Amino acid sequence: MSVKLSDRVYLVGSxxxxxxxxxxLDCHVYLVDGGEEMALIDAGAGLAxxxxxxxxxxxxxxxxxxxxxxxxxxxxxxxxxxxSFRRSLEHLRVYAHPTVAGYLREGDExxxxxxxxxxxxxxxxxxxxxxxxxxxxxxxxxxxxxGSVTFQVLETPGHCGGHHAFLxxxxxxxxxxxxxxxxxxxxxxxxxxxxxxxxxxVRSLRRLRGARIDALLPGHQAFALHxxxxxxxxxxxxxxxxxxxxxxx
Length: 249
Hints:
It is built from 7 helices and 12 strands. By secondary structure, it is of the alpha/beta class. It is globular, with a radius of gyration of 16 Å.
């Protein structure tokens, strides 16, 4: 099962903090159809890769057209499936922040905060991060092309180090894949991990002031297909008044 969000964008994976399309541990996994090539935004936890690819095929789209995997950040629910997708898709290229790329190559569970998640019971004790290669380390301002679609990389640390959001033009509409930076209703997600940084989080949110986002597609929970900027502005309004936006989860 999957959900078509626009002519180009599909929700093909989602877990318990979403709409339960795949493994309960998965973030939202988005598919973007760029014609001759397609891209995935995030990889989920790696426990339902086959199911996600079946959801792609159910829309009459060949999974082998998926040539790009863009990772918003390194947490296991977003990047744990990287190695599994690499095995399944012969021509896949993986893009990540240099910090995230290092964690994935080393299978560094402390680096991605998985040790904290296991102690909290979010992940089962037997879950492990499988090391995975990253083809391209991307930084702020980089552009990634997938067929007829181009993504602009926005470095947005705060929720964790090495966090990216991806901005895409979809036939004149500005679409933001925000990862765990900003959620529906202007909520945010602070966690007790080594690289969660409130000051950096505030600076990242302020980057989005006046961004004119139409569709806001976050890593969990509800998404906004129209007037996405108002959810960002809701968070900025609280920050401007000296407060901290509410937690998403």
